[in-house]
Amino acid sequence: MTIKGIVPITLANGNVIKMYSNSDDFVLKELYFGLNDEKGTEKIMKLAAERSAVIFDIGANTGLFSISCSGYNPHARIFSFEPVEQIADRFDKNISINHLSNIEVIRKLVSDKVQEDMTLFVPNSEISYSASTFKDFHDPETITPTKVEATTIDDFKRERSLPKIDFIKVDVEWHEFEVLLGAMDVLKNDSPLLIIEILFSSLEVRKNAQLAGKLPQDHHLNIQKLLTDLGYYSYMINALGIYRVDQLEPNANERNYLFSKKQSERHFISFNESDLIVDQVFNNV
User: Fold this and answer.
1) Contact assessment for residue 39 and residue 240, using Cβ atoms and an 8 Å cutoff
2) Dihedral, CA of residue 41, residue 47, residue 51 and residue 54, to nearest 10
């Protein structure tokens, strides 16, 4: 069954957001039919968004994360980065549908350097959730190399004279490490709470054997070392709560990890104890 038209989504606080689909948004379809497998991430997003003044959404796609954050905190300033033109167009449509003024769509890729013509490999579909700078992530017959403008989190913050970034979400298909390299000043000085999708080559190869030998084996290790050196702790997210872990490992339930500069007293905290999560894990939001 396809989903076409304006789709209402009720958030955990009772607010309703609306997203448009032209039978082409599979994430929205899964959410509509209750098949979403990131329920834990939604709960962390709510807790963080409610307490954040400035939010960055890196790899924003059609805007579900950003618009949900606005639904939880209409006073937050949300900067959403989406470099693929047709997807950014859909995002702008969703902003209009929801009559929002606190979200700005930045049509740039976020990386470790400012560049006018970085290559992004975009799947040949109207709405794709897997555009990547990593060419071998897709069958070359199914992608179009596209030149896009790139910026960094540090440069963007300076350009806009933002006082502090509280919360950053990163979902950029194998480009997460480069995003973090371009945010070193922000990570050191602002200590934002982070939600990052962590991809593991072993899991991707299980889904597509043709990727064997093509994916970086040390992707998650590079991310963990960079963040650990900056004083961040790692928390695996699932539907029940968050687990503080010493090493990043494939998450059977969700692909997102939470990173914070506070070390929780307990290794596991249930979402039934949301106040405890805020007290023990949220460093500055």
Assistant:
1) no
2) 10
User: What is the spatial distance between Cα 56 and Cα 194, in angstroms, rounded to a whole number?
Assistant: 10
Contact 62, 94 (CB under 8 A): yes
CATH code of the domain containing 226: 3.40.50.150
E-state strands within the chain: 4-10, 16-22, 54-58, 77-81, 103-106, 109-110, 115-123, 143-151, 167-170, 193-197, 233-237, 241-245, 256-260, 268-270
Quote the domain boundaries for residue 78. Answer: 35-280
How many CB atoms neighbour CB 14 within 10 A? 7
Identify which of 90, 83, 81 has the alpha carbon closest to the alpha carbon of residue 21.
90
HEC per residue, 15-65: CEEEEEEECCCHHHHHHHCCCCCCHHHHHHHHHHHHCCCEEEEECCCCCHH
Contacts of 259 (CB under 8 A, 6+ apart): 193, 194, 195, 196, 227, 232, 233, 234, 235
For residue range 231-270, list pLDDT tens digits in order: 999 999 999 999 999 999 988 778 899 999 999 999 999 9
Token reading at 69: 């954050």
23 occurs within a structural domain: no
Report if residue 9 sits inside a domain. Answer: no
Which two three-digit tokens encode residue 131?
């555009």
Is residue 18 in some structural domain?
A: no
Closest CA to 96 of 133, 65, 63, 144: 63
- Within a domain: residue 3? no
pLDDT digits (tens, 9 = 90+) for 113-123: 999 999 999 88
**Structural domain count, the chain:** 1
